[in-house]
Amino acid sequence: MSQAKNELDPTERMLRACRGESVDRPPVWLMRQAGRYLPEYRQIREGTSFLEMCSDVDRAVAVSLQPIDLVGSEAVILFSDIFVPVLGMGLEVEFAPGPTLADPIRTHAQIEAMRQTDPRDEVPYVFEILRRLRGELADRRIPLLGFAGAPFTLAAYLVEGSGSRDFATLKTMMVREPDVLRSLLARLTKLTVAYLEAQIEAGAQVVQLFDTWAGLLDAESYREWVLPVHREIARSTRREDVPLILYLNNGSHLLELQLEAGADVISVDWRVDLERAASLAGREASVQGNLDPCLLAASREEIFSRVARIAEQASGARGHILNLGHGCLPSTPVEGVRAFTDAARALGRG
Ligand code: 1CP
Question: Where are the domains of the chain?
Answer without folding.
Answer: 10-347
